Fold this sequence. Notes:
The chain is an alpha/beta fold.
Amino acid sequence: MSQLRLLPFRLRAQATGLLATRAVPERNWRSRSSGPPAAFPSGLGGGSSSYMEAMYSAWLENPQSVHKSWDSFFQKTSEEASHAAPEGRPVPSQRTTTSKLVEDHLAVQSLIRAYQIRGHHVAQLDPLGILDADLDSFVPSDLITTIDKLAFYDLGEADLDKEFQLPTTTFIGGSENTLSLREIIRRLESTYCQHIGLEFMFINDVEQCQWIRQKFETPGVMQFSSEEKRTLLARLVRSMRFEDFLARKWSSEKRFGLEGCEVMIPALKTIIDKSSEMGIENVILGMPHRGRLNVLANVIRKDLEQIFCQFDPKLEAADEGSGDVKYHLGMYHERINRVTNRNITLSLVANPSHLEAVDPVVQGKTKAEQFYRGDTQGRKVMSILVHGDAAFAGQGVVYETFHLSDLPSYTTNGTVHVVVNNQIGFTTDPRMARSSPYPTDVARVVNAPIFHVNADDPEAVIYVCSVAAEWRNTFNKDVVVDLVCYRRRGHNEMDEPMFTQPLMYKQIHRQVPVLKKYADKLIAEGTVTLQEFEEEIAKYDRICEEAYGRSKDKKILHIKHWLDSPWPGFFNMDGEPKSMTCPTTGIPEDMLTHIGTVASSVPLEDFKIHTGLSRILRSRADMTRKRLVDWALAEYMAFGSLLKEGIHVRLSGQDVERGTFSHRHHVLHDQEVDRRTCVPMNHLWPDQAPYTVCNSSLSEYGVLGFELGYAMASPNALVLWEAQFGDFHNTAQCIIDQFISTGQAKWVRHNGIVLLLPHGMEGMGPEHSSARPERFLQMSNDDSDAYPVFTEDFEVSQLYDCNWIVVNCSTPASYFHVLRRQILLPFRKPVSAGLPTCPPTVHCSAVRRWGPCGQGLLAARHVFPLQLIIFTPKSLLRHPEAKSSFDQMVSGTSFQRVIPEDGKAAQAPGQVRRLIFCTGKVYYDLVKERSSQGLDGQVALTRLEQISPFPFDLIRQEAERFPGAELVWCQEEHKNMGYYDYISPRFMTILGRTRPIWYVGREPAAAPATGNRNTHLVSLRKFLDTAFDLRAFEGKTF
Ligand SMILES: Cc1ncc(C[n+]2csc(CCOP(=O)(O)OP(=O)(O)O)c2C)c(N)n1
Ligand SMILES: [Mg+2]
């Protein structure tokens, strides 16, 4: 902010207005960009003069021996050389003169290229005129900001009026192939150094660079009709007057106003208009706090009275849950785009305060919407992400999200990013907030063009946005619009910015608002009259006043009016699920056999798999014959059976295709044909739903956010994210805390995402051991102290009330059932009417298949999904005992929240002296130990498969079954981790504090596991000894 730039003398003085007066037909850049290798070189830098000299020697010998472009170039320059020789002076040799001309041409080419690469560094991007958008007042020495800088190219003032052949890599000539140097510089200045700064020359693709050059360099491109200007003015009026209205009515309320970047509203609307014109029907937006209410009002077009209601502190919410502050809420709206007269659906995804966290969520939702519509190219559905300058540069999830943008299973075919670059983050100057020149540099990693634009030039902004939308819809790649603006007030309306940015804010106080500047311009040029302008303002003010009047009649708030992803027909009219029954989750035996058979085969012909894999498939076939499943096969059965029922299954995460532990192998690789793969799961049934299994980038925050967004789009899909090891979820903690555990309470939004978190103490060290169950359990919202009312539907109503389900399965069958229950659990009934007709390529419930039908109904099922956290095993994947029989999975069977003791101890419960409750893998250690100590009749072992919501009813039942037994909770985790803190008060509640629940497990610790194998085994031995020492708690009080 202290870096004042003295605007250097520019050569543009005489040029103003010229661009607007010339109507130049567009040149076809495609035909110009290609040619045989020896053609006139388009991008030659300084090092190419020897090549040119070689060409020239060849041409002197035989003009036909070089490409015709060289021929005409040398002919022309020779002619000019001979004309240029001043009278009376000796004529230099033809070769010397031509050589000079060749060098000058090369210099001019370099000069043009310098502007294309570095022009943005001197563009006037800061509306305040005091800051450098690139954080640096340095002026590149190869830009001609003063006459003397021509010397850099060995050119002088005398060369300014000489004509130069233009290379194919510029469009500044319009229909002309030559221009004077003076005009070349003027046009380059006009394109690259005024209110638009273009960064694109790092893009690897020449065609894409040419496209951008043509869009911005062609003379006359930035002309607007008077109608377009009036629309732009009207949009600015709305944007500005909306903020003014809020400021007038609620002067002491936080709203994170847009003042200083009002142009964002017309900017977003232009992107949407242009995209709609190009065929887009559904736009999904993500954005932070700044200007969000304005976007809701003027872009999404949410009813103003509903927005104003949010300012009324007295209104109570009608819906359950915590709700959220008004500048985080989402919205969904289908309407007609007035510019294109086409239908458009706009949704703004709700987000937490955590800046940029919504980015991957928006991308996932967009991908899902594209997937369900069969929109593989992103022609119908697209995303727009709005960012703050400080957050865009500082938050790592931005980078993670960019890296998803071109991955086949994650791409949304291009996103338009808009940065509200108000050159400040809360109280921090950009120079302290980032190390890169611009806040947008992160986008360079994916070759996204970056268009910086001075936000006080509304026409420049609109032009840039229109090109950005066209870019996205032409190349299906990301693009960034950097709106360089200012923040008129403090961080929020209560903040005093002069404490920390005194000079900047002195300038801001002097700054004429953009609306006034633009209105004055249009009035001066006669596009509107002052009266028309004032009427436009009065009209919008009236709209706001009327809505305000209506908002005062409201008695109640509805959070569900702010839902960003409604599921049609999912709820009854009163918002309740349709039924509270829990069907069985088993499937017919022939289905199990069929899935087992496909899972052990290679459905494609002449497909050679690895011999090690053949062994695995043979063992699957063997298990199928024996009516057994291991973990991987149980998962196959669950996925495969859901696919048959039309449920799309998507499994994503690092190395999930094979499985971190090499157990899954859902994608087979031909050992002889490169990149030939086969996914047998997609060969199960003729009309099955599609199965997507995809290895993700090495990201947790980004990818989990993405899958959450994907799961948000439909209740009729099983979407799973698997962590490589369970503890890696902590780098995605924000998605878990801010969206998964709280999303329903804050935003009445349901989501059925499943997290698979490998967990288990196996001596692998502090990392790779614990998936940190304690964290999830601590966030579970079931009340530890309330004695529940055991109604008939207790199991289901408990699920209905909780924020997520936490399970730790001890058997493959249990895993199979819980995955199926995730979809079937639901409160559903067949639906007959009232749903929108599905577009031609979605999953259709009428014909119960995927593919075009054009006659079915959207929203095939009416399920009530709930987030599910599963701690999954590692060593149990191959444990000989960890197998389940078909008997535990066939029709009529279902998920057991608790697996009670059913061995010797169960035969004489009165004799049992100890009942050990446990969950997950430790069960197998306990069984083995019990048997080796000969205590099968005296110690009962009961497993909690579902930990949260806590199965109060079954725990009570089990405790009552063994009235004389001492109750023990055994876990392999340390005492301050795992499940103990969660289960202990709940046991107390259900036992009425009459019997203690003793702890057996590892001691409290700081690290989740030891790195020393021996220490691991010693601590295991120790707690197993305690578990079966029937006198361990004698004399102890609780
Ligand atoms: C992840 C995260 N860290 C910190 C904050 C606190 N915070 C809220 S707004 C803000 C400044 C954001 O600056 P910028 O991205 O430039 O947006 P602006 O407010 O300037 O529009 C900060 C630090 C937050 N909301 N999220
Ligand atoms: Mg900012």
